[in-house]
Amino acid sequence: MILTNRTSKTAIQISMWKLAILLGCFVFVLDVITKYLTQEYLPLNYLNPHFYPYGGIGVFKNFLGIEFSINHATNRGAAWGILAEFQSSLLILRIILVSAMLVYVLFYNKDVSKQIPLMLIMSGAIGNICDYFFYGHVIDMFHFIFWRYDYPIFNVADSAIFIGIVWLFLLSTLKPKEKPSI
User: Which domain holds residue 84?
Assistant: First the structure.
């Protein structure tokens, strides 16, 4: 049986959807598991400063000037703790933004190449939203020091959001411009 161009295009879209959903579920589950393990088995970084650095578990130190440790930190605000005093408003805003993204992905997005990065952003955002219901704050654990710059502690959800945003940016800048038809 020979597939028509339209049928093969639909098959590709469905397989990309399946891949995007599978990846989004994997990211969400990985995020939940890492946050649970951090919450259960690591003391908060300010409670036990005797561990490597700032109460964490050292993974590697001075690998080309980079240090990495697993720490237990909490975040009540947005990225890097900004707007922490508006925790309820941020939660409502996040829920509205994720809902709007879901509507966009389901009904308006026609570009197959955007499905995976959008799903990464949504699964990361949903993971951080769930933290507010499970713990009352977001749990962060990955701590890097890049050549003496102490980078803010982050989690799997934050990584997925960042990767999705960079991916969308690269898609928009590297995509060839369509020539207008005359």
Answer: 64-175
Active-site residue identified among 31, 111, 150, 158: 158
In whole angstroms, give the CA distance from residue 156 to residue 160. 6
Name the β-bridge partners of 139: 74
Number of domains composing the chain: 1
Tens digit of pLDDT for each residue in 14-53? 788 889 999 999 999 999 999 999 999 887 765 555 555 5
* 28 part of a folded domain: no
The closest of 108, 128, 91, 112 to 171, measured between CA atoms, is: 112
Inter-residue contact 47 to 55 (CB < 8 Å) = yes
Q: Is 158 a catalytic residue?
A: yes
Tell whether 126 is covered by a domain: yes
Of the candidates 31, 111, 131, 140, the residue annotated as catalytic is 140
DSSP 56: B
- pLDDT per residue as tens digits for the range 54-103: 557 778 888 888 888 898 888 887 776 666 676 788 889 999 999 999 99
Indicate the burial class of 142 (C-beta count within 10 angstroms; 0-12, 13-18, 19 or more). buried
Please give the DSSP secondary-structure letter assigned to residue 44.
Answer: B
Residue 23 lies in a domain: no
The Cα 28–Cα 128 span in angstroms is 9
Can 31 be counted among the known catalytic residues? no
The verdict on residue 1 lying in a domain is no
